[in-house]
Amino acid sequence: MKRFFVCMLLASTFISVAKKERPYEKVFAKHIDNMQQGDVTYLLSYPRSGNTLTRYILEFLTHRPTMGVRQRPTKFDSPLSLSFKELPTDIHLKPIWKIHKSLHIMRPPFYDPEKTQIMLLLRNYKELVFRYERYGKIAMFNKDGSLNEENLILAFDHWSNDEASKELYFTSLYFFDQIPERNKILVHYEDLVLTPDTVIASLGSFFEVSESRVQKMIDTLDECRQRILSFYNLHQHSWSKGNDVRHYSKKKSYRQCLIIDEWVKSHYPDLWECYLSQYDENNFRTS
Asked: Is residue 16 part of a domain?
């Protein structure tokens, strides 16, 4: 009998929770339908580029939910406000969609060059490559010291199973480049870590947020970052502790870093000139 009542209690609890979640599910389903109107805002980035912190800042500033697209625009991650209750997010507002694969949105109906807004979060490609080398357990260099180009391309295409999405990192940059200036904003991960006040002010201006709201985010940033880091470490792990922008590349030799630079420069000279030359290893060390 006791076991019966315990089972009934668990069942009633499950039903109660399910009922509470249903309104969220309906709202999210509506957002997905509206996503096909082209009037959409995307947070576009390569994985491990400061997405969680950026989403927190965006929800705090705009009150809009940030929802992560998984695989295709029919599966998604919930807004951060479901994990961080202090966020003033209104789930009924138009979402900001976090996405890693621009090929899923760079064509109608998910993209309209006149209406679609793009925020690109860009991180030093060497950090991403060497992180993938360590945890993907693949070698970027052969035993003779030469570049293993196949593995390098695999790293740049991290998390993409789509044959058409090869070198995902650069595809996103090309997509961003074609967006009208008024509809896009570029945020470097390094600036987000080292000069967050400037980044927050820029985001406030782009999304037309009040100065008081921007200042409140700046004033509480340190506390928020600690909560975010604790949350992140529950699910994955941040070896850089969220404050070391050269955690992986500084452990590599100067020569190895230059080899990666030369590959990027030779294969994507236009992107190097416009966006990536600041990551030239010569800017950080000379021997």
From this structure: no
Residue 129 tokens read as: 């490559």
Looking at the structure of the chain, the number of domains it has is 1
CB within 8 Å of 88: residues ≥ 6 apart: 59, 60, 63, 81
Tell me the C-alpha distance between 261 and 268, whole Å: 10
What range defines the domain where residue 219 resides? 25-283
Report pLDDT digits (tens) over 18-75: 444 445 667 777 777 676 666 789 999 888 888 889 999 999 999 999 987 665 545 6
SS3 68: strand
Residue 9 falls inside a structural domain: no
Dmax over Cα atoms in the chain, in whole Å?
Answer: 76
Sign of the torsion angle spanned by Cα atoms 266, 270, 273, 278: negative
Residue 2 located in a structural domain: no
Residue 13 domain-assigned (yes or no): no
CATH number at residue 56: 3.40.50.300
Q: Which residues are CB-neighbours of 46 under 8 A, at least 6 positions away?
A: 100, 121, 122, 123, 128, 158, 168, 169, 172
72 within 8 A of 200, measured Cβ to Cβ = no
108: pLDDT strictly greater than 80: no
Contact yes or no for 166/102 (Cβ under 8 A): no
Amino acid at 247: H
What value does the mean pLDDT take over residues 90-103?
86
Q: Where are the beta strands (DSSP E) in the chain?
A: 41-45, 66-70, 72-77, 96-99, 117-122, 184-188
